[in-house]
Amino acid sequence: MSASVVTIVVVAVAALFAVLAVLPVRPMQAAVIERGGRFHAVAGPGLTLRVPFLDKVRTTVDLREQVLHIPAQPVVTSDRTSVSIGITAYFAVVDVRASVYDRPGDLYRESESGRERSVGESVERVVTLALREFAGTDGSNGPAPDIVGNRVRDEADRTAMRWGVRVRRVEVRPMEPSPSSHGPHHGQHHTNIHRGSNKP
For residue 185, what pLDDT band results from cuts at 50, 70 and 90? Predict the structure, then answer.
């Protein structure tokens, strides 16, 4: 093999390594880099150097505030009244590493399929659980939607902050008695909720 061919091969390999060593990360995103199957670093927006074939990107995380619309679902209150409550939650990742590695098993991976849950799916589970727990402590004459949203946000935020996610706001959409609800509280509950939601 001639010296010129060797030179070309060396230059080509060096160029390949140079290209693979540069990791571009989009604005408002972060990349989680693992080395040897273990956490190594978090790469922020821009260009980051990595060791080719040794450093791998496990996942990318969106750093923007995200909006999560949770469909209306039946919730049973402490007086056994069934109401349908819809929620919109606003959240953001504040600790990239924790959002990937510190989520509990049931929030990180589906038990049956083993599929990894997204951060949004984990937040949805936490918010829904907080809503159900809160609804179970208040009867059908409970507080207005803004108060419900604040309490659900506080509880969900306390849980989510353990794995690097901040639940910044929770909005409760108008609550309606479920078709299966029975009892004299229906009209009163309906009126109370709408009165609260119409506050300036």
Answer: very low
CB atoms within 10 A of CB 86: 15
* Helix %, strand %, coil % of the chain (to 5): 40, 35, 30
pLDDT digits (tens, 9 = 90+) for 28-47: 999 999 998 899 999 999 99
Q: Which residue has the tokens 């609800």?
A: 181
Asked if residues 185 and 139 have their Cβ atoms less than 8 Å apart, the reply is: yes
Q: Residue 1's CB: how many other CB atoms inside 10 A?
A: 6
Model pTM? Answer: 0.73
Q: Which domains does the chain have, with CATH numbers?
A: 3-62 (no CATH), 66-197 (3.30.479.30)
Q: How far apart are CA 34 and CA 101, in angstroms?
A: 12
